[in-house]
Description:
Layout: E1 15-17, H1 19-29, E2 38-42, H2 53-59, H3 63-71, H4 74-86, E3 91-96, H5 103-117, E4 121-125, H6 127-130, E5 142-145, E6 149-155, E7 161-167, H7 170-186, E8 188-189, H8 190-198
Parallel strand pairs: 2-3, 3-4
Antiparallel strand pairs: 1-7, 2-5, 4-8, 5-6, 6-7
Organism: Streptomyces melanosporofaciens
Pfam family, one: DUF6879
InterPro entries: DUF6879
Amino acid sequence: MLSLELPVLDVSQGDRLSRDAYRADFRERVWDDEGHDSWKLERQQHFQEPGSDSWKAFSQGDWEGALRLIEQRRDGLLQYMGEAAKRNFSLYRVRVVEEPIVPYLHWELHLLRLRAECGERIRVVGPEHIKGFEESGPLPELVSLGGRTLYKVVYDSRGISDGAVRFVDPDVLTRWEEFIEGLYEAGEEMSSYFERKVAPLPPPTAAE
């Protein structure tokens, strides 16, 4: 286990946002402060993403179509990352991956490889890195924006996005960004992890 201290995250101290309110709030704040990096932590191994055409193809068993649709996002991601570079901030992501890799995560790791190729800084950590941090439950799904906002992303029982809890306390934000950064420093670059663990896998057979 890493020598990190797990911060406290009291949802009663945040503002609960519906899915639509979260998306609107995110769009409003994403470019607020230049020079402040964004940090993201993904822990769950399975989600459903009905808003993604690629995920829909994957869930219907069309693996080749899913991969084509992922690749079609390249230009948009390059444009987005170019805008981030102009505003002098980077996007960092830590993805927890348990093995054997489940079908959903197999699909997502293809998308994350593309994001990394377009400039997002993504690393993978395994359960051994977070052992001891989950005595009270799984780590939260988190994203920080602009050095001013932290969202705990909420999902329903099916793994579909259900909004978020927003925190604006600087102490809460700083502690969680430092925690995620510690995991990031211990992680493996997405490109090397993908080549070692994902590229050799056969296509997933179901969106389980």
